[in-house]
Amino acid sequence: MRFGVVVFPGSNCDRDCGEVLTLLGAEVEYVWHRESDVSGLDGLVIPGGFSYGDYLRCGAVAKISPVMDAVRTFAAQGRPVIGICNGFQILLESGLLPGAMLRNTSLTFQCKTVDLRVETTRTPFTRELAVGQLIRLPIANAEGNYTIDADGLLSLEDNDQVILRYVDASGEATEQGNPNGSVGNIAGISNIRGNVVGMMPHPERASEAILGNTDGRAFFEAALNLAS
Amino acid sequence: MHVRVLVRNRPGVFDPAGKVVQSGLRRLGHHVEQVHLGKVIDLQIAGDDRDAVRAEIDLMCKEFLVNPVLENYSVEFLDDEGQ
Amino acid sequence: MDLKRVALEHGLSGEEYDHAIAVLGREPTWTEVGVLSVMWSEHCSYKSSRIHLRKFPTTGPQVVLGPGENAGAVDIGEGLAAVFKMESHNHPSYIEPYQGAATGVGGILRDVFTMGARPLASMNSLRFGAVDFQKTPHLFHGVVAGIAGYGNCVGVPTVGGEIYFDASYNGNILVNVFTVGIAKQDAIFLGAATGVGNPVFYVGAGTGRDGIHGATMASGQFGEGSEEKRPTVQVGDPFREKLLIEACLELMKTGAIIGIQDMGAAGLTSSSVEMADRGGTGLRLDVDKVPKREENMTAYEVLLSESQERMLIVIAEGQEAEVARVFDKWELEWGQVGEVTDTGNYEVWQAGECVCNVPISLLTSEAPIYDRPQRKPARL
């Protein structure tokens, strides 16, 4: 399987994502933001980092890069796309996912491991997990406060688009378990079709035993298994 | 009184965000010679003595709103009827 | 213009100025006064510390590269070296805590990746005044935010640090930043300008008037009301630095680089002079070719500017196109600004005129060295 990792000026989690995919047996292609053809790939990862320094708004400048047209087409074909952290922000700015990202309510950069609950298994990235499964993944962001209007939120819930929620130690989506104030404790969502996923936590930082946590591995494995 | 404080980098102080926004615009086909990003701070402040309010705003800028090492600011009195 | 008075305003002593005249055999030009003052400043020359720094051990079975380059390198096995350095940015941080600390991080990152090592992690060692000292909260919050803001955006994690508060630091905080990277021992890049005729390239961000000190601006140079030309504090752009890291590491793989050095304190001057010094060569620069972000810059300003995120690279003759290819890809500025010569001199041209021509050795190995008086403090 050939997976693409899109690289924008300022992306910095690209190599981590590529390493994990390679470890899991995929062929990895680093797709420079100016490329316009991703048709030969089986999946796309839009990694985290600070594309364009987060200047103007997070993901705002990346969304007008030439590669995003190709990403749009790829997504429209129902193929798997995952945006992680800044990648999620880029998908939101591009309109490939609904809603927007605000500053964390604490107004600080949150860098820690958080408890999450899997909400759906209907996406290529979560299909090998279980609904209600509790996992722990690292977050590292200053703008992880997901927001969407009331109608949008209802639509997300109705269409099974929420993939991950921040929870407390007992697995409940409480205020205490929410590191950034995001509406409904939402940590990750998908589009209506389910092939495009965005999540703030970093599964690529929890995919190797040497780092002490492999809860993130399943996100990549599931997509690779589906593609093969 | 409604007052608008515009904060921007002093001339010559590097504005990395301005440069990036300029290239973004260029990529979309808009050729702009220069872009500078600043901040708009809108204040609603009690009082009807413009000079006194202005003096207080200057103090706020000096103490807090503006970094004099890097930034300049201008003060605009918006429509007194309220915006 | 009384050049001697200007030289004193620049921080040179009377004796130092006279020594320069004696070696040059003439009065220096305005630009040369700037170059001398900055190369003979404490920060660049370590003139008061050199004799003491020599007392430190610098060799050992694991030392791959000791002092003399931009960072040190230590063998960590498997043909790899840890390349690391720590540096202080105390005074800039006292004036503008966020940018002072941020540009400190930028500088230390460049010192590491200029050696061919991808930066992996940063740390810091901080000293602030008493917790209840009036300036402490502002400085503390600014410095911490600056280190975090720059480090996070550039993508190099800050993994640890130490901090102390004591009244003895009320008037002068300490902001020490550290970065470590990894390089293959057989792919460590040095900062020497060798190969007469090899082109010299400037890459990164455009040059502005950042960091040119007010004291050095004689009133004769600028009219009143020229607020725009007043010295400005250096602002770091971590996004540009990230691009610079990737572009430099990419260029390093092409084999086109002969020598590379970052531009830090004293900007273009110190890096070009130090590279020529290490190479035992001379350098000729044309400031007209330097990418600039301000108009009407004098040679003096271009040479002394401390604009951030810039590198100086000596390229193998014939491989110039590699620079354009890589730096255009990463959308960074670049310019072919000079060449390596065999004159042993630092020669700078502007608009067809030679504005500086001094022996490299005068600026480096023959810079003043002092043995300052020492005394054990009473409190010890």
Layout of strands and helices, then pairs:
The complex is a heterotrimer of chains A (228), B (83) and C (380).
Chain A: E1 2-7, H1 14-23, E2 27-32, E3 43-46, H2 67-76, E4 81-84, H3 86-94, E5 100-102, E6 110-118, E7 134-141, E8 145-147, H4 150-158, E9 162-166, E10 186-190, E11 196-199, H5 217-227
Parallel strand pairs in A: 1-2, 1-3, 3-4, 4-11
Antiparallel strand pairs in A: 5-8, 6-7, 6-9, 9-10, 10-11
Chain B: E1 2-9, H1 16-27, E2 39-44, H2 50-65, E3 71-77
Antiparallel strand pairs in B: 1-2, 1-3
Chain C: H1 3-9, H2 14-24, H3 30-39, H4 42-45, H5 50-53, E1 63-65, E2 72-77, E3 80-88, H6 90-95, H7 97-113, E4 118-128, H8 136-154, E5 158-165, E6 174-184, E7 199-204, H9 238-252, E8 257-262, H10 267-279, E9 282-286, H11 299-304, E10 310-315, H12 320-329, E11 333-341, E12 345-350, E13 353-359, H13 360-363
Parallel strand pairs in C: 4-5, 9-12
Antiparallel strand pairs in C: 1-2, 2-3, 3-6, 4-6, 7-10, 7-11, 8-10, 9-11, 12-13
Briefly say what this structure is.
With 228 residues, chain A is of the alpha/beta class. Chain A has five helices and eleven strands.
Enumerate the spans of chain A where pLDDT stays under 50 for 5 or more consecutive residues. Answer: none
Helix content bin of chain C: 25-40%
At the first level of CATH, the class of chain A is Alpha Beta
How many beta-strand elements of chain A? 11
Order of strands side by side in the largest beta sheet of chain C? 8-10-7-11-9-12-13
Structural class of chain C: alpha+beta
Shape annotation of chain A: globular
Q: How much of the polypeptide of chain C forms β-strand, as a percent range?
A: 15-25%
Please state the average pLDDT score of chain A. 96
